[in-house]
Write the structure tokens for this entry.
Amino acid sequence: MTVTAAAQKHDNFWPATFQERGAVVPFTTPVLAFSRVRQQEERGLELLVPGLAGGRDTYIIPWRSLPSVFVMTVHDRVLREEIEVLPASNPGDIRHASLKVESTGLAGSNNAQAAKQATGDDDSEKLLTNFFLVTEAVKQLSGGKLQIGPADLTHDAGRANIKAILSRIAAMFRLNADEFYARLESWAGTVAPIGVPGLNYTCRLRQLIADIADYADDLETWSDRDLSDVSDSARVCVRIAEETSSTARTIATGVDRYAEDMRGTFADWEGNLTRLQALMEKLSWILDGWRPIVTLWRETDRGNREMAQDAVAEMLRLMPVMPRREVGSRARRTWGDLSQSLYRTRVRTHEDWLSGKVDIELVLRLERFKAIGHERQKR
């Protein structure tokens, strides 16, 4: 089956919602790399592939048709099957499925190690965030009169002291210590990807927000030195990155406010937990697809003009645009202009990727980017 026979084609695609935009799938088959999957009520799962064969259009391909349309790597075939049985196709579920498949070694031993490390880092973020919330709750809700520290966890007397203190704090909200701690655990599990203010550790999404801002600054500096038409494309990428990092920071600030007012958060726990979950879900959608873009530019030799220009063309193809219904009326005009600019400047030739052959060099490059993308850049 050919691509044109299996796919629908959309020109100037500007989705209305995050769900319509879809979540990025880290396939290693070059033509499918960083395309997006979405769930349609009538048609089921679909894959959205932007800039196919150097065009400006987005091709929408039925999920079930992928193996008959493309020559997929073994890793991608397994990942496709894993995603097919997920209850939802959101960024978090796609990431978990990807880490699960990568940890088997199908994308190479380096990726397997990086996936296992990323899973361990996720667990560490949750533990550190949980302990920080416990200590901060005790500090804020006792007016600074009570406190606990890591040393209390190392012996029986310390642990008994923690439970006694939590019992006193929990009573303020007509809870026992176990119930109060369970709420703190739920809170930590919700916000762990970004952490909490004051935590002596930069969690994954907070780091990514900072990395996107750094990416925008660095790419703008490069575009000022490049005298070709590619510099205009780079500036489009810069503007999208700046708008994205600004929006993400606003959401992150909203998440942080709950930790800065523990009493207010617990006073309406059910409502505030729902609002926290909604903020974190929106943040994960906003940042979805940015790690490979940041990694691609970080790994590009800026001194190699042709390589840097090729990287800009590829980043332009991958640029995530905020859906029109997910932003306010003022921001919608900005994103509408950016969407138009992106469509006008999107140029990339992928003809070799459609030849039916698997380009081993490109596959290995994508696998390396996947491994590097899991690494935490400590701040």
Remarks:
- Confidence is low (pLDDT under 50) at residues 347-360.
